[in-house]
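Hi V.,

You were right to ask for the full record rather than a summary. Here it is.
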Amino acid sequence: MNIENENLNNLIKEVYDKEEFIYIDEEINKEHGLMNESPARLAENKIFILKTLSNEEKMEAIAHEVGHVLLMNRKLIGVSIYHSYQHNFFAAMLNNLISHKELIEVLKNEFNIGSIMHLKLQKEALLNKSIENRIHNASSEEELYGIGFQLYDICRTTGEIYNAEIEKLINSNECVNKSFKASKMYLNDINSSMDEEEQIKRVIYMFKELSMLELITSFDCVDVYMKENVIDLVKQKVGELFRENKI
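Predicted structure:
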């Protein structure tokens, strides 16, 4: 698959310099993380993309994945938790919440790339009842908290803060409601231009609000250098907040 879009090529060059990519068209493949709701995946120098997408959709999907890396390079934080599937889902939804609004704005304003398909998929998740079904079938608090992150992510990116369907979902479960409100309180304006320690502090407060501070040792501040002292920085910040009686 050849990508002839100049805007996308400019984005890729900014993130990866002279790296050459291999574009691989595939059917739905869960092993590569390819599904209708997640149509592209970046793995080293390979971009896996659903072959059923139109060229415009493929361009948007690839730009979305590369955009996540661009924001990491700009010092936007992320969370990695590997304890279980539920923790992975929790972390993935939290990272999406932290990054998606800025990601969509950067693609539009700096590279003239839209996110029509991404916004469409988010709205479809509400309409096709997949989120509602996940709430009913959730097996842990962590999974429910992740759904709350997902719903607030949809609010931030679509601008539909008072969407009736979202209101119904967040009021249907206490954990979903709790993480939705904690997200709004601590993470609404988080972005890559914010001081790294301030970003960390906000996420720590959010973990505390959800009584999940014990997971903080698995918290990573992700930047392009993957700094080895990240966990020490987080522990230091937690210690400072405890001493100041702020958590």
